[in-house]
Each structure stands twice: as structure tokens, then as C-alpha cells.
Structure to design on (320 residues):
């Protein structure tokens, strides 16, 4: 999978928030096999906490994808992205412009506006968006080379609430990397996303809030691999009626 | 001079942003700054002068999804 010219093997992108401890986070990163982890920016408390976390990130060996989580306007997201680029030394940015506090639904108007500005400034924008095709087109027009549609509201763990829309996105954007971002709860959800032909899955809470995050990270990675293989293998279509799988030819007459 | 740092009022003597950061105890190299909502790159902190009432944001790496 090529993301802004970078060849990525693992189809799992992992968030770094809400783990019971830094050690558990590090273990989950390792067992997931991820190559991309998401991070954020928050107010520094003048106690160096940010520096400690930064060391952990550097030791992970993963590529960093900073986000603009918590931004409710294009202007805030743009400033946050600029700060993230300097801090993390990457042009990659997971662009979030939030429209509603309760659903954390993307404000797609602010998103497109911010994407246009950031692309012009040399950023590689990973937009957290809805599954709306027109918005997707606008984001590509703005210069995005990846789309990250939501599966369900962030942190809800509801799985894919609108698989048909994701299927439509796949058909409409056959050559654009599509990464389902948000809403994954279980490995079966991640597998379903990949079976639909998504290129990758970004998740956080489903692993961080599992009883054993490292084990869940591994389960997610395997589900993603299984779903991807299944999509490539061209699954059968469901049928309305039963069709015997055992041949009936040569069946004995015993009645 | 009173400025607002991460939403908290602070009294600083320094005029230059770089000096004010040191005065406020932001010694970590892993920080990024914004003044009144506008990003201030690291190499502009010395030449950036503070004024009373300025809103300074000092951010650092944090866990995120």
C-alpha cells in the first residue's frame, strides 16, 4: 500500500491513547505489527511529560501520524497541523475538524477548507471524513491522496454502521487508498472493512480498552489480514435457499 | 507583563518568546508554540516579541487516536 509515496506493509494503523500504561502501549504496538501510529498534541504541563512520551514514540520505530483531534474549525486544525509538523518532523497529518461534540462527526466543510490550505503548504493530508462521495471528491480535488471514512462514531465500537456506503466509496474511488478510521469495536468489524475492499483500518479504543490490549492488537492484525485475503479471493455471493454442498449424484436409495 | 499561557494568566519579565519560555519553565525541546492562534516556528521564537495580553499556547506530544 502506497501512502504518499511510502510503501506500507501492515494494514493496521494504531492509536496511542487510553492505554493502561506506557509499557502496555509499547507492547500493543509491537504485537500489532503496525508501522504507523497516531499521536496528538496537548498543552505542555512544564513537567516534561511530553518529552517522555516522545522518547517512547521514537523507540517504537513506527512512522508517526499526528492528528488534529479536538479542533472544531479549519483555522485551529491548520495551526495544530503546523505545530505538529515541527514537533514530529513529518509532513503527514491526520486532519480532523470536528462538527459535533456528541457524535464527533467530521465538519466536512471545514475539513475540505483546511485540507486545501495544508496541501498548498506541503502537507500530506489524511482526512478523517464521512462516507459521503461528494466530500471525498472535494478532498481529492483539494489534493488529498488518501481518504479516511468513519465506520461509526469515534470510540463507539459499533463497527461499520453503513457498509453499503463504504462499498460505494470503494467503487467510486478505485485507486485511492481508503482507510476506515473510527468505530471499530471487534476484530470481526475490522475483517468486514477489509472484505469490503478497504485498504487499511485505523483503530485505537478497541485495542486500548480491551482487557489485554497486546492480545487484542494481535487479533486485530490477524483479522485485517484475513479480511484482506478474503477480499482478494473473491467471496461467494449469499444465496436465498439452501444448496447441498455434498454431491447428490450417486446418493443411495435407502428409504 | 501579564500574558495568558495555556489559558492561565502568568506574569513574565521577558519580551522575547524564547526567553519567556525559559522563564516559564518550558525547558523541554519537544514543544511547539502558537501566539494568539498563529503558529510560531522554533527559529522565530527569539525574534517574536510578546505584548501584554498575548495568548500563548505551548503544546507537546501526547497520546492520540
Amino acid at each position: 500500500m502506497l501512502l504518499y509515496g511510502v510503501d506500507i506493509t501492515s494494514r493496521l494503523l494504531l492509536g496511542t491513547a487510553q492505554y493502561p500504561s506506557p509499557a502496555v502501549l509499547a507492547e500493543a504496538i509491537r504485537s500489532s505489527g503496525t508501522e504507523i501510529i497516531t499521536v496528538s498534541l496537548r498543552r505542555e504541563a512544564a513537567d516534561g511529560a511530553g518529552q517522555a512520551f516522545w522518547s517512547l514514540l521514537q523507540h517504537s520505530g513506527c512512522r508517526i501520524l499526528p492528528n488534529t483531534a479536538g479542533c472544531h474549525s479549519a483555522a485551529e486544525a491548520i495551526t495544530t497541523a503546523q505545530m505538529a509538523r515541527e514537533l514530529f518532523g513529518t509532513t503527514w497529518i491526520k486532519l480532523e475538524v470536528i462538527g459535533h461534540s456528541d457524535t464527533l462527526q467530521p465538519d466536512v466543510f471545514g475539513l475540505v477548507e483546511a485540507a486545501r490550505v495544508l496541501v498548498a503548504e506541503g502537507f500530506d493530508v489524511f482526512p478523517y471524513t464521512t462516507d459521503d462521495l461528494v466530500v471525498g471528491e472535494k478532498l481529492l480535488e483539494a489534493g488529498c491522496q488518501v481518504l479516511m471514512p468513519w465506520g461509526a462514531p469515534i470510540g463507539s465500537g459499533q463497527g461499520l454502521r453503513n457498509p453499503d456506503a463504504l462499498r460505494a466509496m470503494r467503487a467510486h474511488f478505485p485507486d485511492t487508498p481508503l482507510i476506515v478510521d473510527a468505530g471499530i469495536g471487534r476484530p470481526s468489524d475490522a475483517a468486514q472493512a477489509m472484505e469490503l475492499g478497504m485498504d487499511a483500518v485505523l483503530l485505537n479504543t478497541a485495542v486500548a480498552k480491551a482487557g489485554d490490549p497486546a492480545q487484542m492488537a494481535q487479533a486485530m492484525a490477524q483479522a485485517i489480514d484475513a479480511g484482506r485475503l478474503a477480499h482478494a479471493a473473491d467471496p461467494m455471493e449469499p444465496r436465498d435457499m439452501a444448496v447441498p454442498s455434498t454431491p447428490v449424484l450417486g446418493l443411495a436409495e435407502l428409504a | 507583563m501579564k500574558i495568558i499561557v495555556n489559558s492561565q494568566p502568568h506574569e513574565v519579565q521577558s519580551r522575547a518568546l524564547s526567553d519567556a519560555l525559559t522563564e516559564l519553565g518550558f525547558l523541554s525541546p519537544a514543544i511547539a508554540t502558537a501566539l494568539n492562534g498563529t503558529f510560531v516556528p522554533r527559529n522565530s521564537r527569539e525574534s517574536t516579541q510578546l505584548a501584554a495580553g498575548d495568548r500563548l499556547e505551548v503544546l507537546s506530544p501526547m497520546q492520540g487516536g
In short: The longest strand of chain A covers residues 36-43. The radius of gyration of chain A is 20 Å. Residues 213-232 of chain A form the longest helix (20 residues).
